[in-house]
What we know:
The protein is an alpha/beta fold. The protein contains 8 helices and 12 strands.
Amino acid sequence: MTDPREAQSLAEHGAIPRDLPSPPPLATLSSSTDPVALFLDFDGTLVEIADDPHGVYVPASLPALIADLNARLEGRFAVVTGRSLEALEAMLGPLDVAVAGSHGGEFRQAGSREVTPLAQPLPGAVTKRLSDFAKDHGGLLVEPKPFSIAVHYRRHPEALAALVACADETGAAFGLKLKHGKQVIELAMPGSDKGSAVERFMQGPPFAGAFPLFIGDDVTDEDAFAAVTRLGGAGILVGPMRETHARWRLESVSAVHAWLAADRSSTPNSHKENSPA
């Protein structure tokens, strides 16, 4: 069941409730004109969500899968995550693929170590205020990032109402965007969202002119679902059915891996799916 606050966030994104079919095989999403560009979320999409974001299990095969997808798509591939790039590479090792971290606040092209910020750094006073709140409410898990800060309440759901009030007040004071995720509240600098990151990638080579696909599981992925839809592409929701901008749905993280690994002998160059109704 969708959390009421997640439902409110979805309504703000203009998401509509409807049943979603499974996506066609990646290799068959092709035509002679529009190559596929694939954008993947990390937590809840490539790896299972854990109570502690530092304790997720990363399959040993995941870095190789990422490299394989990047090669198959001729570089039209990116990981777009809420984690910082530093935290992501601590789990996966150095990445040569295109990647956006901190919900798009950090932006890096494939083969480069140069990070382009898409937002201003988060003020230290915000981190202190939410860290102090977390200590006073049972030791909520705080995840500071360069352009945002996340507070996980999975282990202390009783603190949610007070946490939302604190985040609302702090966000208003510092001009931040409040994001509701899966048992997590996040405050982010303006410009730090996954949709902006996808749009930035799609403006230049090798992504420009491609059919964009974004795969993600959380409410924070709705910006990206909306962005790829505006660009003529489609989103793939991971997990239970809910209101969403996505066109297709995969049941679980394991279903994502199976879908990505299928038809490896074929190169998914382009798109031939009928336009949505």
